[in-house]
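Protocol step 4 of 6: structure prediction from sequence.
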Amino acid sequence: MLNIRVVSWSLAIWAALMFMSCVIYGLLTPSSLHMTAFLEQLLPGFKSLSWPGLFVGLTESFLYGAYAGLVYVPVYNFLNRNLSTRGFR
């Protein structure tokens, strides 16, 4: 059984770190290799190279990661509980 708090926090922090790594990657590479257009479509309110945009993108990434954990863990625990009693292990 997975702990929803641990998984949700782990995914939230991971998503925030991946967002920051994409932003840093965008600052270090030529504009033809940027992920800016993708991030602006994925994260409403995110605008590249602005402090408010960075804060919005970081917050949304964190919340998307937490949401993924909140959805994934109950589904996993339900299937783990029900399928293990039927001999699927």
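Step 5 (inspection) to follow. The mean pLDDT is 90.
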